User: Fold these one by one.
Assistant:
Number 1:
Amino acid sequence: MSQAPGSQAGPPSDVRAAATAGAGEPGGTDGARRSPAAASSPTLARLPEADAQLYLHPQTLARLGTLELRAKMIVEGVMSGAHRSPYHGFSVEFAQHRPYVAGDDIRHLDWKVFGRSDKLHLKQYQQETNLDLLVMVDSSGSMAFGSRLFAEASGQGRTANPRGGPEWTKFDHATAVGAALSYMALTQGDRTGLVVFADEVRAMLKRSSAQGVWRQIVGALSVQPVDKATNFSRVIDQVLGKLTNRCLIALVSDLYVDPEEYRTALARIRHRRHDVIVFQIIDRREREFDLSETAPFDGLEGEGRLQVDPRAIRRAYQQVFAEHLDKIEEITRSFGFDYQLVSTHDWLGPPMAAFMARRNSEIKRSKFG
Amino acid sequence: MTFLHTSLLAAGLACIAIPIIIHLLMNRRRKPVMWGAMRFLQEAFRRTRRRLLLEKYLLLAARCLLVALVALALARPLVGALGASGSQGRTFYLLIDNSLASGATDDAGRSALDRHKAAAREALGALSADGGDRVAVIALGAPAEALVLPPAHDPGAVAAVIDAIAPTAARADFAGAMALVAGSLRPEGAAPSTDAAAPPRADRAVVLMLSDFLEGSADLGPDSGAPGASFAGVRLPRGVTLIASEPAARGVSNVSVVGVEPLRSVVLGGAQPGEARAGEQVRVSLRRSGPGIDAPLATTVRALLAAPGSADSAAAESRTVVRWNPGQETATTAIALPPTPAAMHGGGGAVITVSIDRDALSADNTWRRPVEVRDSLRVGVIAPTRFGRAGGVDRLDAAAWIRIALAPRAESAQSGGEIEVVNIEPASIDSARLAGMDAVFLPRPDLLAEGAWARVRLFVDNGGLAVVFPPPGVSVHLWGDAFAAAMQPGWTPARQAIELAPRGGAGARLVAPTGAPSARGSAPARLLSLIEGELEELLRPVGVWRALPIEGSAAQSGETLLALPDGSPALWAGPIGVREAAPADGALAADTSARGVLAYFAVALDLEWTDLPTKPLAVPLLNELALQGVGRARGASWAIAGARPNVGRRVAELARIHEPDQPPQSAEVVAIDAEGLAREAVRAAGLWASRDERGTRRALLAVNPDPVAGRAGAQPRDAVGAWLAGAVERADDTAAPGATSAVVWLPTGAAAPGGAEPRAIAAALRDALGAGAPRSPISLPLLACALAVALLEMLLARWASHASLVTSAAPAGGAPLATIGGAA
């Protein structure tokens, strides 16, 4: 059984301290400064910081321990690592030859080529760099929905989520996905940061490669309120404004947003040459809509109330829902980003491992691989 | 369109509210569901809203339509001619004979009325209440009484009414019953209507007559079967079905008391208590009918004089036996009254009760006749008093002659005699003084002031007797104007006396009128009936030289007891206050029971006018005039059952006097109208007391069985059928009489010994009626439509519930929602 990285790290309460210290800095959280009301919110203050193991089951950790998180696009980092760097120079991995021009360092001449062809060519190498992973977790009101019992999903004997509810919400599942991703990044020495958003960026955790960061991420997520509507464009603007280097952005959300707004946001991310992995979290009941009693439905994001017979509109609902999922996936893939639909009713480990393996193989087959 | 069961229709239409209420309850508030993917829910609802509304309201409409169709089908609508007629099935008119003859009992002691009631109940059971049959009940005891009319739907209530029918002592009034039926079928002034209260259709009307049709019930008459002759011209509309119980195959042997006539209406008691006055007899008329008429028979007649309502069984009664010869139908016998009970001395009303042996028809075995028992009569002679001795016979005036004639014995004139004579001065007449008199004689009417005549009129109206003589020694009789104006006898006396014979001669002779009895009826009712036998002999020596005759038609308002040689009344008696608009028949029948009697003797009791005062006739003539006249003036003392008794204008009501041996009757008090007639007919025999507005008893009234109704002979079925057939209009009214095809006979047990089984009655009634109640022609199609709508509703409900979608699409066993990475 693998040991969770950072198990010797400080308590999760460091998250807020770090967030406060990093406010205004790239990769640092500015939630306290941007939303003092939220920072001083009694709800936030009351929420207990969850045990990180609630969201990463040991079996999941075992599956994730052997995985490697790669960036599909070229990223630049301050540390050499497993990722390709956009800076071609002198490294250990050959990249290409180019003709020698005056002024080039003759140390990089390929003498073997000169011996065979009497031409001077320089030998260029692919530089490996480190990966900055930014996990963006949606904490809008719709993420508070869940139809699975928390006790069943967490496997830790707890019957209530950190907000007191008995259900395993989509936000809980998003927390687990974020924890898993940060765990994988940390195991390969990459830096990991966190952004929690709804109608705006609620909290940010600066990127760090410290081993206990994933626990801080879980702790930070567990104290976030889950409400408000989603303003995706605004959130992307805020996040992109704080990113100075290219990152791998893991977007974990139910993506109940307008597809065109979503497309615009991804385009801006793509324009900044960031790589994106989209994890769309849905609940099985939301997709199946297998209710049988007429009841008033209240929207979690303040959409109002609607009394309907679920059986009467089930088919239309499923059709609308499927159209939306298809649209989101289509938009995501149209930018070359990876898309993964995740159900709260599924264990995270096996599908996550399968997804990462498939992604890595695709990267290797690509021209960058 | 009308409905056979409007109540079901109303209830069913009210049930339409049930699906609506359920629909509203479905929208009640439930626990809200917090939903994250609300935008998709709203979008799905927006896409399906019109279809959902259509489903919902289609389903609601289908359910309401289903309830409405079922309600309509159960209400059984009638359309077209059936509905427009307003008819709701058949209408039965049950005519039940409860006349006197219906009391005839069979060998088992069961009366015909009981059989009729049982048959009526069985007939009710054969009706179809669901089919909208209605029933009316009419009792035939005269006058016919509508017990249930207009026809009712409730057989239970009708059965209760039938059970409560009591026998009467009247004849059967088929004509009145037919008039009631005809009035129900063709109400006057009724506008065509389509509602349930519309008159029944004639072709759906059934008249069911339950009677034995004995002679006393059905008077077939000589021309039975002639169109319109049977029921006083009443004709039922064509199409009415006549059903009648079989006439009795043989009647019952019956002896009836058909009349009891005391010699005088006032019975004078003996000088000593317990002593009967000699010669006080009653004449009893009997009649027998039925199959036993050809056999000799002995009937014991008992007479009893007792106070009304007394239970003195120990009272003495007198008996006599009437022996019938074979074939003899009527008999008359005289029976002496038993001694006057001591309790009656001092005056008061009494009842002569004559009864005979009990037979099969016992209701007519008793006859009651009220009489007045008096120790003596007080007779006032209104004439001036002459002082001093009168001298010789030729010096006696009319008043003196009257006193001598009324009280021939000097001691009687003072007190203790039969007639007590009181002298009254003409100038001192007052109402109080007259009220103490039973009769007044007026030998000098010319001395009465105009106001005095009004008091005399009041005295007569109160039941007094006034005997008026023309005053002697008056050449022009002007008093007649005031007399006629006050008394209104219907005639006026002449102004001048006429000379009938030259003075000194033998004088003209008075004659007793002969021939047809007067309007009062039978001969014994006449005032001078007691001396009728000797009247001719007593009149022979009497001579009359002068008279003041009557001018006008006196014969129509009263009776002529003695006549002048020219036939004009010499002694006239009759009522006062005769209305100018006399009945068409000219008889006094309408006023026979009026109280008060006025007598006018056209000859003054003066030797210048006649030698009557000196002749033997004077004493019995004036005595009988006083005794019988006082009795007559008391007013009617008996009536026939089924009639409205005339008891006089001063009577407010009749109150029944309970007799120990009679069951209580429903009507205990009968009101009297302004004309003195009872407001309703009295159908049961018994004793009644007439009371004024202050509740003071004024007189007794006996209601006796109708003599006609007691005839118990059977009548042939064909004759009865022809008689009944005449009640219905026929297409060809000139058809030969005797056509009985219009009458359907129903066996009720009267024709055959042992009686018919009730089932046979019901079966026969069903057979006679043929087709049943009208059936709604669209009930079945409506039910079929309701079934189709029910199926449609099931499909709609299945479709709108979308239950199949949930079942088919429900995830099984918690299968994974989506395959991770499956879309990649």
Note: Residues 88-126 of chain A form one domain.
Number 2:
Amino acid sequence: MTDRVHSDGTETDAAATQPGSFRQVVAVFTRDRMATAGLIIVILFYLIALFAPILAPYPDEGAGKPNASALTQPPSAENIMGTDQLGRDVLSRIIIGARPTLLVPLVVVALAILVGAPLGAIAGFRGGWVDTVIMRTTDLFLSFPSLLLAIAITAALGRGLFNAALALVISWWPWYTRLVRGVAVSVRQSDFVEAAEAIGLTKMQIVRKHILPNSVTPIVVQATIDLGIVIIAMGGLAFLGLGTQPPSPDWGLMISEGRSVLLSSWWVATFPGIAIFIVVFCFNVIGDALRDVFDPRTRR
Amino acid sequence: MRRLEFVITRFGSTLMVLLGVTVITFLLARTVPTDPAALFLGPRARPEEIAKVAEQMGLNDPLPVQYVNYMKELVQGDLGNSISTKRPVLDEIFARLPATLELLFAGMTTAIIVGILIGVFSARWKDKPIDWGGRALAILGVSIPAFFLGMLFQIVFFRWLGWFPLGGRTSVDLRFTSPITDVTGFLVFDALITGNWEGFKDALWHLFLPAMVLAAFPAGLIARMVRATMSDVLSLDYIRTARAYGQSENLIAFKLALKNAIGPAIAVIGLSFAYALTGSFFVEIIYTWPGLGQLTVNALLNLDYPLIMGVTLLGAIAYIAVNFIVDIVQAQLDPRVSLDD
Amino acid sequence: MTKLLEINDLSIEFDSGAERNRAINNISITVDRGEIVGVVGESGCGKTITGLSVLRLLPDTASITSGNVRIDGDDVLSLSNKKLRALRGSKVAMIFQDPSTSLNPVFTVASQMRRVVKQHRDISSAETRRLMSERLEAVGLSDIDRVLAAYPHELSGGMKQRVMIAMALIGEPELLIADEPTTALDVTVQSQILALLMDIRDRFDLGIMLISHDLGVVSQVVDRVVVLYAGSVVERGPVPHFAEPEHPYTKGLIGSIPKSTTERGSLEPIEGTVPYDPGGIGGCVYASRCPDRMDVCLEAAPSLDAVGIGTAVACYLVGQR
């Protein structure tokens, strides 16, 4: 079917994707100011997630403790983003909620790569029936709209942050299998692998020394864009009540909770929404910049 | 004809994928949840009853046998009964389908038109202000989650500006003033063919915001893809030929290059549809749109597994069907496709 | 009398953002009606860029920094976009190296030719059809209806190049720029296309600028040769002059052409490669590869001096003689 299309809709001609070094990735940021700004903002958000309990003005409320004395207050000096229906400081909830919202997708994408990439390398390098079995399996998983499959799996496993994350890993690994297989196939056909075989490297060594290193750049580019998509997907699962469970905070869940008071107290849903938008926007800007450089298709 | 051959082989492989998809939904439906029999009977069922129902439901048979039975039922259109309403899942789905299809159709049509326009204009004026604007719009589209954009639009267009309604498919009082006769289930269309002008305006007015929200993400995807393929094509030799023979830049971009670029670009339409499909879940909840998404979300709350798996299976089938159609259209657009890979 | 094509002191620079390279350095070439001029050099010498500059088809990264291009005395570089488009494909036509990538794959031959007709001629559709058929016949194609209805991929390479030439003839051009028109074709087809070029030159009184890397091939059909190396003209003259060329580079070019009489092992490639930024070289552009290099060659570039009627060489060795 749509064999070379990625989760963000781009197509990569794997044979044409040149293996780039980490230094080239760094070079992108020294040249593209938008990408640099995006990277700084993303890093900032992740630092906030890491040091959330220290940074949150009201860590207890952030974690879920109601405050009956300040129900749905508009933004003010004490609560610069207002409070929600249970009187909790929205800013604190956003800061504490950054952990499940931002850190979990990072783990999800990392696990998807860990599962998907080696399978893709094996499929592309071994060829034959191994390739067929692995790729038909990925085809199967990719026959579902990824988020729909994740919803079904979460429903089957039971709701909760862990199961939602697991479901997303199960739905996302095939994208990386496909990506790395493309690299592996083109590497296999190149001369230096023939040379490597000639000097007696084993297949595993070739996979480790040539295919995986060559896959790093395409994976980094893809993962950057995927992170934005997975953050939205994760937020979506939380919004549907399948991810983080109350009273824990999560931006998707907060938007969902803010819906019942949307018209009277816009700030409850709007601030977490803006937060999620900023992070995803930055990931997309970075991803675009990286892709412009590393995907020869769009470079001209 | 090779073209026909192509369609048939693609159709064959599509059937194989469909078969595989049923294996996954079967496994999800029968093995992962705690105990389908217990779920079916509810929390107060006694163990003997559960055992009996489990026997009746064939849950004690080996998995392959269960799968064969599952397929037998599936082929007859039997997806089991909803746990909460006890009605057949397929009936529940079909009752809600037109509302969702109307939304998806409006959203995808908008996304395709807007996405292609943005992409082509961006590529035609590459690295000019029009391109910057187009790229910004495309990134914006893929960066705002539907569940946030939907609420943002409600605040802006309902609360502040009052231009559009908060939700629903029609106004409440429309039922009394000029009710829409149900013909196809697509309200806008039904109102139009029955000459119900008031109903048409009202339904369209209600459709607008949800369709726009749904279109945002797919439109962004399509715009990026069209821009990329158009930029590729515009740098090719035959475009230089067209320039060398005095063709105008507008003719080159909007006709000569577009016809080449559109084929590869529409590969992304299948994927856009997948995002729109799941996006409709959020849009339907936010805009109280009585479609499949709402049904599914309620099913998630009630742990109505037969219904969830029914929707999942149908979603996969729809996605596969769209990809199949996209493949055929792509092949149709390109006279070079030898149609054998 | 003004020449059909005059390129005077043309320089072209490429700006890759980080650096600027001078790809073409003060070259002058003329082509007259009824004459075929060969522009010869290795790949990367700036032949194609020179050809593209005549119709201002250079990529965005290239800019013309000095000189001018005149068609019948009119400066092409200062034409308005509208006039430029009227010139392209009518008075000046161009054919390219690879006919299979030069025709748009998703339009039929008829549709692509018709668009050129529409651009330059105001005639009825019946007349258009007749004109297209005439031109296709003129380039030696038969079964015209089938060719017109075909998509490019349904034609052979030679047929595609003939279609390109037919397309070039639609606007009744006076000048044809042929950029390596035979390189992508089989050897037997190559000679047919070259014969066709001579034929249409005679019939339409065309001036042809034939760009090629193959001096041997070019010398069979052209009247004069301009040898380009690293963006500079190093030698030019009528074909007979090239039986014994004087510039070391031209000698090298001839030495690297396989001949039936060449003994095994005596084929001599020119060592080294074309310099990347010839504009930045102080001395002779060929000095880095020249077998006869002298000290003076590294200090200043030799001027292109006449050594006979219509013959000029840019080499200190020749000047000394």
Note: The two ends of chain B are 16 Å apart (CA to CA).
